[in-house]
Write a structure and sequence with these properties.
With 306 residues, the chain is α/β, with parallel strands linked by helices. It is built from ten helices and eight strands. The structure holds arginine and manganese (II) ion (3 copies).
Length: 306
């Protein structure tokens, strides 16, 4: 596989500074070498430059850095569309606001190919606020509402060429949902597995049923991995830690199953805040998880697709 690393030094969607350094930390932790060791061709396309902004405003005065996030979303939708034509783009964040653009771009590509896009959202949060409902004003809390075409983004964010069908979104790891997000969830058709669901059923069963749906639909699969999906004990380098997250082993199992499925066509690695890390352990874990997703394994196993 041709892996394309695309650095996105974005931190304007988060309240804490530091995600801007995420792409560098992932490089220092050896992402390119880990992928090359697995036999992949790797191109590091470098970091995107912050795009120029124009005046955009919204009635909700809590909203922070709207012109910056709108400009990044426009840029990223173009870049993600372009780079998903061939090979596998890996978007190195940067805060989770970047997924508004990356998912919009890969969804447009999937539509060109006549295939449905599915999104696996690995996160403590649903990131399902609209510009109206966000109380924190941090726009890393809105990308899912945007790319699934929820109302309220017109006149600010770029129009979506191909909205993602909410029924094609599966969230795993959820343990922090705001009241307004809960209301949207009850209307939208998103599949959502909270930590209780993982505890009751095991993450493998939850993921397997989603992957079967993607396979049956001949879909493309975008994976969006927020560092706070992981338990803060193993992944401290994130500004929005929530206790009780996915373990090291659960996260690797998810990645290994994704590899075996052969379905993943693009990946976001987001919310890494190197300023909050401990001797690079979170960046290193993200590199190891990406390696599992791209084929690193302990033993060969008898064939079973996933
Ligand atoms: N729901 C909270 C908010 O809107 C937290 C969002 C956290 N999102 C993230 N991508 N870390 O502020
Ligand atoms: Mn998130
Ligand atoms: Mn999160
Ligand atoms: Mn494998």
């Amino acid at each position: 596989m041709h892996c394309k690393l695309i650095g996105i030094p974005l931190q304007d969607g988060a309240s804490q500074l530091g995600c801007e350094m995420g792409p560098s930390a992932l490089r220092v932790a050896g992402l390119a070498a880990a992928l090359a060791d697995l036999g992949h061709e790797v191109s590091d396309l470098g970091n995107l430059s912050p795009p120029p902004t124009r005046d955009v405003a919204h009635g909700n005065s809590a909203v922070r850095n709207l012109p910056e996030i709108v400009a990044w979303t426009e840029l990223l939708a173009d870049v993600a569309y372009r780079e998903s034509g061939e090979g596998m783009p890996i978007f190195l964040g940067g805060d989770h606001a970047l997924s508004a653009g990356t998912v919009a771009g890969v969804a447009r590509r999937a539509a060109d190919k006549g295939r449905p896009l599915f999104v696996l959202w690995l996160d403590a949060h649903t990131d399902l606020h609209t510009l109206t409902s966000t109380e924190s004003g941090n726009l890393h809390g809105v990308p899912v509402a945007y790319f699934t075409g929820q109302p309220g983004f017109d006149g600010t964010f770029p129009p979506l060429v191909a909205p993602v069908d909410a029924a094609n979104v599966c969230m795993i790891g959820i343990r922090s949902v705001d009241p307004a997000e809960r209301a949207t969830l009850s209307k939208a058709d998103i599949t959502i597995h909270d930590m209780r669901s993982i505890d009751e059923h095991g993450v493998a069963a939850l993921l397997r049923s989603f992957l079967e749906r993607v396979t049956d639909a001949n879909g493309l699969l975008h994976v969006s991995l927020d560092v706070d999906f992981l338990d803060p004990a193993v992944a401290p380098a994130v500004g929005t830690t929530v206790p009780g997250g996915a373990t090291f082993r659960e996260a690797h199992l998810v990645m290994e199953m994704l590899h075996d499925s052969g379905l993943v066509s693009s990946l976001d690695l987001v919310e890494l805040n190197p300023f909050l890390d401990e001797r690079g352990r979170t960046a290193t874990l993200l590199v190891d998880l990406t390696a599992s997703l791209m084929g690193r394994k302990v033993l060969d196993r008898p064939t079973r697709s996933f």
